[in-house]
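Notes from the pairing session

We agreed to fold both candidates in a single pass and log them together. This is the raw record for the first candidate, unedited. Please don't reformat it; downstream parsing expects exactly this layout.

Candidate A
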Amino acid sequence: MSPESTGQNEHYLRVIRRRFRTWRGNRPFWAGLFTMVGGLPIAYFPYANMHLGNMTLAMSTTAGAGSLIIGILLITLGLTMWFHHIVRVFAGVAAILLALISIPVANIGGFLIGFLFALLGGALSLSWAPGEPVADEAAPEAGVPAETAPEGLAFAKVEPTAGHPGGELLGAGVPQQEPTKYDTAVEVDGGRHRAG
């Protein structure tokens, strides 16, 4: 065992933090968090009572159930962004629409706090894109002989001109496509299907 290997001696909090960072980087984490935070005030304020001395202020409206549904849907959409990030575009559009609907329904969108957080979360979800995986092999550079280049890449030989010395192989960057091969024995009936 080498003295540089820290895998076994690494503190478990550092391992958990690294795993969380990896998990967070593979999904629209901040979009889901902002959407859930936006759903909380929208669902909470219609059922909250504020006490000012001996006076109680109830902020409930006739659409209390509507604002509760909007808040719960926003929280659900935030969780969807986290755990099913493949539908992030749908969740983002739905979060923006629910945020806009919460303005007339739920106390001006949870006193604009929930509206702004839900709107920001939906926009972040729409704009998030998964990262590109890093390629292990570099693309062939200009001047690389065709024998040493990866198979399937097209190369063009440059002829000498006045401005270019020529003579080297330049990669076109587009893989050559092979013609599709299919079995002609399958199409015995001339491409027609028999209907039982």
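Candidate B (folded immediately after A)
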Amino acid sequence: MTLRRPSPLGGRKPTKDDLAQVDTTAPDGVDDILPHDPSVRLRLLIVGINPGLWTAAVNAPFARPGNRFWPSLHRAGLTDHQVDASLGLSAADEQQLLSRGIGLTNLTGRPTVRADQLSREELREAGQRLIHRAEQMKPGAVAIAGITAFRTAFTLPKAALGPQDPADVPGWPVDVTLWVVPQPSGLNAHENIDTLAAKWRAVWEIAGRQPSERDS
């Protein structure tokens, strides 16, 4: 895996001009957080939908202030402190995630103002790429943060939040648990930090089990 780049803004807050200059055609608007050694198996691979403009501007996942991803992850006990990625992700925070077996990526790396600006075809292609990646990486579990995009990406219009049946996703490796968790944006009025944290704890617990234990 390639090393992550520091924030292109050098640690300063993005301005409106910075956000306006984000390339919304770029296929890789934010770097993944993945082991540098591809043979290292993750306990949990967290999959966002795609980077927003702020996230792309500072090259850090879930970076926009007000996003509840990092506070809920910390409240769930997945990090030892609340990460602040709003100005970029520090090397120490990246290492903490990897040392715990947590990786982050997106269905698609193309930045948009809103996730609903992604096309159906774009999301379905992204779903196929994720299937291939899950087969290659074999993490303990994959958690996708966003039910609407999940339904579109895998043509499952009735899918609900929570654990998914791998048989419903053709090609999904049966030994990789698949979950959908809520979109952590502050725009999601159905969730708060506590409810999101409870879902992360459930995913984390199942991700640490052996495949035989997950099926029981």
